[in-house]
Design brief:
This protein is an alpha/beta fold. It contains 13 helices and 17 strands. A seven-stranded mixed sheet has the order 2-3-4-1-5-6-7, with helices on both faces. α13 links the parallel β16 and β17.
Length: 450
Amino acid sequence: MAADLPVVAIVGRPNVGKSTLVNRIVGRRDAIVEEQPGVTRDRREFGAEWAGRAFLLVDTGGWLAPGETGLTTEDPALAAKVSAQAEQAMRDADLVVLVVDVTVGITAEDASVARVLQRGDKPVVVAVNKVDDDRRETEIWEFTGLGLGDPWPVSALHGRLSGDFLDALVAALPPSGDDDAEPAGPGYHDGIFSVAIVGRPNVGKSTLFNRLVGDERSVVHNMPGTTRDAIDTVVETEDGPLRFIDTAGLRRKSRVDESTEYYSLIRALQAIDRADAALLVIDASDGVTHQDQHLAERVDAAGTAVVVVLNKWDLLDAEERESVRRQVENRLHFLSYAPVLPISALTGRRANQLLPALRNAEGAYHQRVPTATLNRVLRDAQASHPHPIEKRHRPRILYATQGAIDPPTFTLFTTRSLSTQYLRYLERKLREAFDLGPTPIKIRVRRRGE
Ligand code: GDP
Ligand code: GDP
């Protein structure tokens, strides 16, 4: 079993705290760890588990030849040796954790290891160690200079923040290999942006789908979906492939029960689970119904990007159009980030806006924001509109990182909790600054003592 586990190698120059960090993870009451017997003495390897993912943690300290582990930073050969260690980690591991020391900053050895890791194709998580107190947290920015993404502050000695760090680590692991059983997540892992066309029966999903596929005059593959009877369609567009999930029912309506409201809801929910974006199709001639609302809530909860389509626009006069737009604002207010496209799938009017809207959604959903810019935007937002409360009680955002994409997820480290209103304000600012239009974003707040 152990042979199948992803291997996480901890690299870094001596004295940054690699062993301490390994011991910290190993020693966590809530991380399940066991020492693996039978491995060579100089490669310390531990089975560990976090958030339901098991992995092998390898302390590469032992990869330096015996006697070399006590090297000091003055040793001229050190950079070469530490780089060699990183090279081996790249070969043997599925993920590499580079440990650096906040009290020292970026050294020549750190930089040379970073270059090795940049060249490789393995994911890297940067742990900035010895961040023993809040004061140091702002200093971690320097380490974005390693060119390996957002650094994670940890204090291996005191166990600070290692939960967040472990979250990031587990998130960067390759998808689990036991695909015979359930795949790691319900989604696809081939990088093709996947769209679920959802909506009540007869709103015009098939018409829309055929138009999307037809307009592209493109190569269309039939691909078996992840469930046995689901057929997906992958369309080649100018901007790359796009997958429409579970299109069997959209191509040919064979079974009577497929047109029942219940059946279509179940199928829609299954498709949304695997989707990166949802095209929520509404029959504008019916207005926004309860069923539309219900589906929209599920789409919102799934955290996919959303494009709202008001179909059959051709059937409405000016007054009705105005009324439907108001209904969207009121009844779908929780989807206010989603673009709303009035179209006619039947006549093709404005249907050419759909693909660009989906591509836009794709960009926003995958958007990764540079940490320095993120922090600048939040600083400016606070400066121009401080949290409305008496100054000495005012929460401050110490710094922020984007912990994940798909959808963009931001973690704000603050001195006190933020009001919901203020969070909404910040969300709006982030959306404006980073063009996050059609995707939901998640903001997590972690409080730090003052
Ligand atoms: P390695 O050579 O990279 O494995 O580093 P070690 O784990 O042996 O740690 C080197 C030194 O840094 C030891 O004296 C540790 O006690 C110290 N150290 C490790 N982690 C921390 C930390 O989070 N904060 C502080 N202040 N010291 C640490
Ligand atoms: P589905 O059940 O959601 O897949 O809906 P269909 O695509 O089968 O469409 C249901 C009916 O609505 C069909 O009679 C379509 O011709 C009609 N329809 C679809 N789109 C439009 C549109 O934009 N305008 C009008 N007037 N009718 C449409």
